[in-house]
Each structure stands twice: as structure tokens, then as C-alpha cells.
Amino acid sequence: MNVIVVKELRKEFKIYKTKKSRFGAVLSLFSREYERKVAVRDLTFQIGEGECVGYLGPNGAGKSTTIKMLSGILHPTSGTITVMGYSPQEERKKLARQFGIVFGQRTQLWWDLPLRDSYDILRQMYKVDQRSYRQFLDRYDHLLGIGEFLETPVRKLSLGQRMRADLAAALIHDPRILFLDEPTIGLDVVAKKRMREILKELNEKQKKTILLTTHDMDDIEYLCDRVMVINHGKMIMDGTLGELQKMIGLPSMIRVKFKDRPRVKPLDLSEKVTVQGDEATILYDRHKTSVPSLLAAVGEWGELLDIQMAEPEMEEIIRRIYQSESDGLLKTV
Ligand SMILES: Nc1ncnc2c1ncn2[C@@H]1O[C@H](COP(=O)(O)OP(=O)(O)OP(=O)(O)O)[C@@H](O)[C@H]1O
């Protein structure tokens, strides 16, 4: 059963021009001149119950705008959406009970209140009865550890705690769908891993349908079987993670700083080495190359000062998708 059905969805923003004069700001209040910015163009997709779909794209691609339309925060310029059979624009109240939403970049909790008070307000907003509320507190203390910081004002929580607190808030009314916009952003390695495990449990054991935006390919690999990739508001790929990996090979990256300009020797397993001054960047396929053997080889190029591991840039992924597309390898949607 499809729980999200989107057809030819489009969102244009009007950006009003500011007049360049001494009274520019005032004049622009009266000016009708504006530019259109197409944030989402003609998206069509369906998401089935219980899926965990990764929604990828570079900054400004239109991911958040899509999620805001699915959740009824923004109105589409054209196209249709149904979520659990409801229109987010016309039946927002009914729909509100069916989904929970987390924006990793900002909290939806009350900053100065103890977490428990925020939950209490949400409980009343969603009309959750006391028994279900107690079950909620128990369940998410167990899964998210919220009991530890229920009495702490939200502003005093660590980022990892705040993210877990926000996720629990999105679950207070036991929704069937979760829209998660960068739920691991800014977290350290340990907190990220914990968040991923929690999301996996929500998806696999509690059967929540998840639409997840992230810039972290590890999140996607761990959680999602399916990925949708969007660029400039347009869907450029919708397929399984396996298909994506096969098509583009998802390179990982190591940046190595040397004391002097490195004496680079060819590496069999690496895909690409670029050198700029005393820095070398190596793109490699982590499924084929072991990092220790790569580092051992790189260590022979000169004296190492610093090593940074990085995930592939989203731009590189997009570039490869376009390349596969023009090579006729990938069917775009
Ligand atoms: N309220 C708005 N008014 C005007 N333009 C907007 C508005 N909201 C978003 N945009 C523009 O729409 C485009 C898509 O933005 P959106 O936030 O959906 O991207 P995103 O894929 O979520 O990016 P990021 O990964 O940086 O969060 C961007 O060019 C953005 O500047």
C-alpha cells in the first residue's frame, strides 16, 4: 500500500527585488517586481508503507521544500499530494495525527522549558490520553534514553540529546510516517551511530515509514534500501541503493597533508589522486580498498602531517549520476 503519493509536484517561490536606492527597503514594500525561483519541479513518486527512503541532493536541491509540502507547511504551486489518503493542504488537521517531523537544524521544542513540559504541551495538542502518554515515556526512555534529561531545559541539552528529544516529540502521537530532515546533522560519530540504530529500530520493528534527508551516505547505507536523488528541484534518480552504488561506485575520500610536496606513486586500487601543493586527495572505493593498506601505500609518498577521511561530496555523486545517465547506464525518472 502506498502511503505517500505525489504527482507532478511543483513549488515556485516569488523573490521580491529590492530597489537599489536610499529608500530601497521601503520602496520594495510597494514594488510588485519579483523573480520566480523554482524549488521543486514536477516531482512524481510513491512511497509504500514501511519503506525507509533516502532523499538526497546537494544544498538547495529542494529536499526541505518537498518535505514541507508533504507535511502541509507549504502549499504547492501545482501538482497533488496524498499522505495516508489525506491532502496535506486541505486536511492538515487529520493528517497531523499520521506523521511526525524532525528538522535536525532546529528544534521544535520549547527552548526554555524542561523537556517534560514540552512533551506535556504536545500531549495536549495531539490529545494523547494519559495511558498512551505513559507508554510513550516508557517506550522512548527505553529506546532514546529521554528519561535521563526529562527535567532539563531544552537549551541545556547536548546536540545528541536534543536530537533524540526532538525525535521522541515527533513520536508522541504514535504516527505511522516520519519525515526526517537531516536528523544526524552535526552529531559526533558516537551520537550518529546511536541515532542510526534508533531509526533502524523505528523502521524495522515499529514499522514506521520514513522519508529521510541527509548529506551522510553512511546514514543512507545503514538505513535505506531505496534512494531518490534530486537536483535543482528535479528527480534525477529513484531506485535501490544497490543500483545507485553499482552505477556510481560511491567513492570515499581521504585527504592527506604532507610535510612537503608528496612523491606520488600510482595506486592500483584508488580511483583518482589529485595533488595540490603539499596535499593529496585520494578517491577510493571502500568496498574494494582497505583503508589501512591505502594509508600504508600513501605513507611512502612523504612525511605525513594530517589525514582526513571524508564521505563523497554530494556534488560528486550527482556528477556521477549525470555521467551514468549520459553513458546510457542509468534510467532517470
Ligand atoms: N521561503 C523561500 N523563499 C524563497 N526561496 C526559497 C524559500 N525556501 C527555499 N527556497 C529556495 O528553494 C531552493 C530549495 O531549497 P530547499 O531548502 O528545499 O533545499 P534543500 O535541498 O533542502 O537544501 P539543504 O540541503 O541546503 O537543506 C533553494 O534555492 C532555496 O534558496
Automatic annotation (TrEMBL):
InterPro entries: AAA+_ATPase (IPR003593), ABC_transporter-like_ATP-bd (IPR003439), ABC_transporter-like_CS (IPR017871), ABC_transporter_ATP-binding (IPR050763), P-loop_NTPase (IPR027417). PROSITE patterns: ABC_TRANSPORTER_1, ABC_TRANSPORTER_2. Keywords: ATP-binding, Nucleotide-binding, Transport. The keyword Amino-acid biosynthesis does not apply. GO terms for molecular function: ATP binding; ATP hydrolysis activity. Residues 21-257 form the ABC transporter domain. The keyword ATP-binding applies. It comes from the Bacteria. It holds the Pfam family ABC_tran. This is ABC-2 type transport system ATP-binding protein. It comes from Lihuaxuella thermophila.
